[in-house]
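Incident log, structure service

09:12 report received: a user says their structure output differs between two submissions of the same chain.
09:20 pulled the input from the user's history:
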Amino acid sequence: MQLSLGPTQAQLDSCVTCGLCLPHCPTFRLTGDETASPRGRLTAMGAIAEGAVAADEVYARMLSFCLQCRACEAACPSLVPFGQMMEGARARLARERPTTTGRIRRLLVGKLLNLKWLLALVTSGVGLVQRLGIMRLLPRRMRLARGLRRQRVFPHSAVGVHDVAPAVPAGSVALLAGCVMDQWFPAVHDATRGVLSMAGYKVDSPETQRCCGALAAHEGAERDAARMAERNVTALQGYDYIVSDAAGCSAHLKDYGHWAEGGGSVAARTRDITEFVAELIDTGRLPEVDGDGGEVAIHDPCHLRHAQRIVDAPRKIVRAAGHTPVEIDPDGLCCGAAGLYMVYEPDTAEALGERKREQVEMAGPTTVVSANPGCEIQLRAHLGKGYRVLHPIELYWEALNR
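09:34 re-ran on a clean worker, output below:
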């Protein structure tokens, strides 16, 4: 499948520079700088496309500084596909102005994340460092390390796990194992399989599947992202539904029509676990748990709220688990995790993470749910030890087992 590098002219023309996106952009909110806004970035993309200016270091910095949270998309009256345009612009920049740092980042997300043995080895190393207490000695600004200190990791894989099929299955589900999700969040996978099996679904994790390719797409590694999509289109054939319990992955799967031949079929069958379980609760296939389990703070991952427009589902699941959902941020501003962003833009990620911490503390509850792994790590890094951060499906599964 031929991918187009850089945004198309039709996409560029769809922006009318109205500025309604500005208050929804985290980097513009932090800096007040037009070049750190969606409108500023689109203007620069247009200038590059016209050949009015060259793709230089300033332009590269404008693209790199974007979190790709897609909050601007949700606010845009012209429905500008900013996320897809940003991926294309970064891919074009990677081709025309490659840098050593960029190559390393694309190697990591485009190649190494697909090496499960290597990820398992890294996971074992992180687990050892955790047990030795070395992470406590790292600088405060290395929030990723602090988040991992509170995120117990160990080698684990959902790939190849096949649950016992119900006597009369309601349908078949392919669970996307993912990369980091597969290794570091096994409890979320366990809860997902448990809840869907309870609802009568046969759940598999095909062995031939790979990383969804979202991180590769975000970093401009479009060939690697396309290869991952092509591999997964084949691996995920024959299932009634494809379910992901990571919001960033489900958002990318729903965009597979852009990445691979036959990807439209994957997109049509993909459900984020929160929307799928909320539908099952609505139809009575899954129960609501009685009782008052207390208040739970709701954190909306960007690729759930802005990219997929899924807002009510996590709240419905929290209520079905016997808890009261509490809002912390009506705007759904990014927490600053954004894949690798917390690594290569630590200062901005720190500022956004601290803002999110303040919002959680003001809300009151000490239990927080978030449906994306990077967000969970970021929240753990910024919240104190008295807070518990977990996926909504984990909260619901716990309630069902009480």
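09:41 both user submissions now match this output. Likely a transient worker issue. Closing.
09:42 reviewer note: Residues 346-363 form the longest helix (18 residues). The domain at 9-98 is CATH 1.10.1060.10 (Fumarate Reductase Iron-sulfur Protein; Chain B, domain 2).
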